[in-house]
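PT: before anyone asks, these are the final sequences, not the draft ones from last week. 784 residues across everything. Please model them as a single complex and drop the result in this thread when it's through.
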Amino acid sequence: MNEFSTAVGKALSMIVSLDADLVEIVLLSLQISLSAVAIAAIVALPLGALIALHDFPGRRGVVILLNALMGLPPVVVGLLVYLLLSRAGPLGPMGLLFTPTAMIIAQSIIVLPIIAALSRQTIADLHEEYDEHLRSLGCSPLQSVATLLWDGRFRLLTAIMAGFGRAIAEVGAVIIVGGNIQHATRVMTTTIALETSKGNLALALGLGLILVTLALGVNATALVISDAARRRYG
Amino acid sequence: MIDASFRVCTGMPQLRRAARQLALFVAGLALAAGAAHAETQGITVASTTSTQNSGLFDYLLPKFAADTGIEVRVVAVGTGQAIRIATNGDADVLLVHHPASERKFVADGFGLARHPVMHNDFVLVGPADDPAGIRGTGDIAAALRSIGERKQVFVSRGDDSGTHKKELELWGAAAFDPSPASGAWYRESGSGMGATLNVASAMAGYTLTDRASWVSFGNKGELEILVEGDTRLHNPYAAIVVNPDRHPHVHAGEAQAFVDWLISARGQAAIAAYRVDGQQLFFPDVVAAVED
Amino acid sequence: MVDEAHRAEDRSEVRLGSSDDHPLLPLVARGLQFGINGRRIINDVSFWIGSSGRTVILGPNGAGKSVMLRLCHGLLQPTGGEIRWGELSVARAREQQAMASQHPVLLRRTVTGNLLHVLRVKGVPKAERQALVDAALQQAGLAGLGSRAARTLSGGQQQRLAIARAFVLKPAVLLLDEPTANLDPAAVRGVEELIGAIGAAGTKILMTTHDIAQARRLAADVMFLNDGRLLEHAPAAEFFTAPKDPAAARFLAGELPD
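LR: through. Structure below.
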């Protein structure tokens, strides 16, 4: 227990003193996860809206698949992206393996189904409620989508935050496609894994505290927002 | 609910066009986002966890960068995986510690030449109370046989790394096959040296480790070095440039510069100068040869 | 009010009002049918509405009043028969109409936001929007509540907002589906006053209700619907004093299920 409290003490002092290595790792983590979520959201929000609003044969199957993909094991995504990006693979010539781009790609793939499925649900619910009114007004399809996306903004925001929470906490895929290279592809989660395996508990714990704070903070904020929105706008 | 289906048909061509533009935009974004940190300069070195975890690269690479301006990215995995990465052309340099595999790598045409760089040794660590009674013996094979016969917990790398291959060779020398006991007293962690040491420490078991990893390991617990010095515990590291004829994209020039630096007087001196807790972890090969 | 009633040769078709100079009138339906899964909800309905007075579709719950309104507004397609607004098809006519449903569909925005949404969708130039919003708020008795979240208003306020929102661009026709069904008497009065003001401005109002007293208060002419059939279509005075259809008479006496 004494060893533990020593580690916590060292960890806190590293955080407070803004240890350079720590800061670099945290910033890289944020850059990668935020990029991944942004990319996933840009694709997933319209995709969810499209599936929600356009009836096509096999739609029910697509919806089930989309929801099922939320449970896609991240490490499997990592393996598939690795095979794709390796020089021996189809996208090899792009030389993306062991780069932050590879990590962004992997995390985007992991996060996309989450945001798409949640946005589809949100848009579908709102569509059911608003459809008659929007048709009465003579909205074009684009106007309808815009109305639904804006009115669903809080639920969509929480969907995006859920995606971010998933991305920032992910370790399996990014270690496979990123290689955990120091100063290049080492993020909070992979560093925690590495430093723990080296027995350097202070650094691992420090990062762990930051990661937990971030993840909990994001989730708590998402809850507060959706709560407040529901109370205010109904 | 009485409702006619929402007709997006009239808007579909519009949406499809938008979707296509979106895909292009997204692809561009992904590249741009990563490009902020893009390092297509420099070289990628596939190496072992023992060199990485000991902190040797943290010490050497800044010196190399200062001398040549070349940036080095190290992917630290088990020797087997490192060789596979180099075979696929995903790395420019291979730096591992299993001579037989290295020679095969070159013989198969994937590497240019094998350059011995440095060496240290393996040690057998175990619980201080040493239930297998092997402390101080100079015969590693006998020690392993003793552990096996007394069914004491032994943690293996189990990951096709150089350390793992060495361990299997030593069991062979001991004429003892631990594999039937896998899951019982013979625990295969399938992980790097650090994680394996963690397991050994937690289970108060025996394990084979390179000295560098041991010295820099921060969670020793009850473990101590029990067997060392047998010549069969010699641990040589060699560097190989990945053959640009096999993989044209390899940064052969910079890769060769790296290997040349490692075996140069400056590189060898730097390796010798690296200390952890006052101990030298790696011993240069080339300078020693010259001195001979 | 009503000009004259022309009785057509066919008893089932009553023509009410001459065609005023109204862009969407007369509203003509012939043999309208609507059903789902084989079940008939609107059964062979024909009518002719020419006057710009308030037309009330009256009938018990389940009579098909809401469906009837939606057929007129083009939100539903008839499975048989035809319906036209003056020279225009229902789809074209909808551009000059607006509807408010029984449960007001308010967007998750402020009161002003709801009004602005309509103006934006209809392409009203930005410079003109605020004046229209202010006028609508004033008319609905919601002045000063512009920045309130629309869904936090009281039931009566919400319905007045929905109606004012429907009326913000002064459509030629306003369709109202049971506008006061869920409101308390005070709120009902507020909504009816709003409806009265809108009708007085010349907009054709077509509304449904099952509330006989309300129909008495508001109707210029009444269409009595029961079980998907149009049983009677007459000027209000006539209908309430001497209904010709027996089912209508029973309904007015409170004997039909309400």
